[in-house]
Amino acid sequence: MSDQKTGTGAEAGEKTAATAGTSKNLRDSGRLTLLTAISRVLGLIREMTRAAFLGTNWLGDAFSVAFTLPNFMRRLFAEGSATAAFVPVFSDYLAEGDKKKTEEFLRAIFTVLLFLVTIAVIVGICTAQWLVLPFKSDHHDEMALLTRIMFPFLGFVSIAAILQGMLNSMGIFTPSGMAPILFNLCWIFVPYLIGGRMGNAARAMAVGVFIGGIAEILCQIPALKKTGYQLGLMRIGPAFRHPGTRRVLGLIAPTIIGMAAYQLNILVSSALATQAGVGAVSAIQYSLRLQELVLGVFVASVGTVLLPDLSRSAKLGNWPSYVHSFGVALKAIFLITIPVAAFTLIEGQDIVVLLFKRRQFGDDSVRLTTAVFFCHMLGLAFIGANRIAASAFYARGDTLTPTKAGIASIVVNIAAAWLLVKPLGAAGIALALSIASAVNTVLLVIDLLRKNPPEGLREELAGAGRYSLVLILFSAVAVAALLGCQKLLPAGGIAGMFRSQTLGAGLSLLVAGVLFAGVGIGLLALTRDKFAASLVQSFLRRGKKRA
Question: What does the angle CA 96 – CA 101 – CA 103 come to, to the nearest 5 degrees?
Fold first, then answer.
């Protein structure tokens, strides 16, 4: 009897700890979400500036291709596989509590990182002429020049990513939100300061990217100093032979392929887009920026906080905390991505007009970008769920499963894009990316259920699946209400009532957003949705504590 009571008490303690940990995760996610929201707004402003100066003409395509190459490697190696492999290993060193041993590991990994990214940047600059060949263009030399200017960005942001991984592992998330804010500010203002001396706006923006990468490093150094840990260098041979380095490299190789799925799909999409006519590459980039507004503001914030927490739970064998945190994160992703995707499928054109239509970005650019945006948003929820599911594998040291799912999605994307690019053009390439993201997510979920899942994981996944269906139903009702109201308006809707198309699109979007959100929130309140209520209560508690 006493054993039974003890077991019950232990289970209750684990559940309480899991709930407390989840509450902290939500608070940290909320803080990071605010900073990331500011960054994404600035990101939109930078894209608005870019659209105004470059539009969807050849110079816009040249800049898009040139930035795609280092940005692809940045997301794959720096913010993708390197962080996913580094955080669990560094968390283990922190758990041991031996500061001297931890700092030795940091010196080793930093030395190896600096060595590898230096080689990568030099090779990228020297081979720029050949790197841009797959992106068929009549302006090959300009693409190569822009690539050379921006390739050092890969090195800067790789260092910044390791600093971010260190700080996140120690529960410090604010610098992670500040770094992209500074990057966007550099992108926005540097072109205005030096644009007249660079020959064209694309080159000035490329310099802004270069300086922004440096800013991402500098803003994290003060926070790192406060932790008491210091980064240093050691001889390259011992650095590569260090046990911690070998563990990170052992994780990073398959992780690269697993994390490459979405990023490589984007790269393939950009290469195929050059066959869809002038402006297709730029339209895809503008559309992805809008999509990543949601992914960056919420999904990335949840993922950043979730990975260290899952890693600690897996290391300690605290599976109730692991399962609970994973379930909460997945439901939170669905609560954001499903309604947002449904709304943008209806209001996509107003969004594109409001944000981008000016100067070089005309009606043709609006039509092209809107069609691409529609197809990209079909895969929004799958991309969000994929990032959370992948984190669950990485936290347990399983990088092989995401690798296999990633390879499958790459094959699907290439095949679908090849089939759809001729009949649908740039929109077909975007649709192929959404299909590939769905395949990747489904495969990961299947493997989560099949490979020795912790107790309760099946129930959490089933609950998240049921919740997604409820959200789809609620979103469909909100869409129906929105379409019904639009039919009551005169031809052209609210936007048609104004001479300024931008003003009309803005007011139309505002009214539609209030109506859509009102119906959705009303349905959640009417059904007394417990999960949404718990999120609201968590953020309210955080607000009271700050007050």
Answer: 115
User: What is the number of other CB atoms lying within 10 angstroms of the CB of residue 38?
Assistant: 16
Measure the N-to-C terminal CA separation of the chain; round to a whole number of Å: 46
Q: What share of the chain is helix, strand, coil (3-state, %, to 5)?
A: 85, 0, 15
CA atoms within 13 A on the CB side of 51: 27
Question: Residue 534 above 60 pLDDT?
Answer: yes
Yes or no: say if 528 and 482 are a contact pair by the CB < 8 Å rule.
no
Q: What is the spatial distance between Cα 227 and Cα 119, in angstroms, rounded to a whole number?
A: 30
The 3-class SS string of 309-342 reads: HHHHHHHHCCHHHHHHHHHHHHHHHHHHHHHHHH
Is 51 within the bounds of a domain? yes
Determine what percent of the chain is predicted with pLDDT higher than 90. Answer: 18
The pLDDT value recorded for residue 296 is 64
Task: Find out whether 161 and 117 touch, Cβ atoms under 8 Å.
Answer: no
- Does the residue 3 lie in any domain? no
**pLDDT of the residue at 491:** 55
Q: Where are the beta strands (DSSP E) in 188-321?
A: none
- What number is the average pLDDT over the span 511-529? 88
Does pLDDT of 2 surpass 60? Answer: no
Helix (H) or strand (E) holding 475: helix 457-487
Unique residue bearing structure tokens 């994929």 = 386
Q: What are the φ and ψ backbone dihedral angles of 452, each rounded to 5 degrees?
A: 45, 60
Is there a domain that residue 11 lies in?
no
CA 472, distance to chain mean position in Å, is: 22
Structural domain count, the chain: 1
Take residue 285 and report the two structure tokens written for it: 């980039």
> Nearest 10 degrees: CA dihedral of 494, 495, 500, 503?
80
| Residue 414 maps to a domain | yes
- At CA 511, angle to CA 507 and CA 512, rounded to 5? 115
Return d(Cα 229, Cα 488) in angstroms, integer: 63
Segment 187-242, tens digit of pLDDT: 888 888 887 788 788 898 899 999 999 999 999 999 888 888 878 889 999 999 99
Residue 358 forms beta bridges with which residues? 361
pLDDT tens-digit series, residues 4-21? 444 444 444 444 444 444
**CA-to-CA distance for 349 and 355, rounded, in angstroms?**
10
Sign of CA dihedral 434, 440, 443, 445: negative
Q: Quote the CA–CA distance of 162 and 114 in Å, as a whole number.
A: 11
User: What pLDDT is attached to residue 413?
Assistant: 87
What is the identity of the amino acid at 408? A
- Look at residues 314, 336, 454, 432 and name the one whose alpha carbon lies nearest to residue 387: 336
Cα dihedral 517, 519, 525, 527, rounded to 10, equals -130
Of 523, 125, 191, 501, nearest in space to 335 by CA: 523
Q: What is the pTM of this model?
A: 0.66
Judge contact between 366 and 356, C-beta under 8 A: yes
How many angstroms separate the CA atoms of 391 and 493, rounded? 44
* Segment (H or E) for 411: helix 400-424
* Structural domain span for residue 470: 19-546
59: left (phi over 0), alpha (psi -120 to 50) or beta: alpha
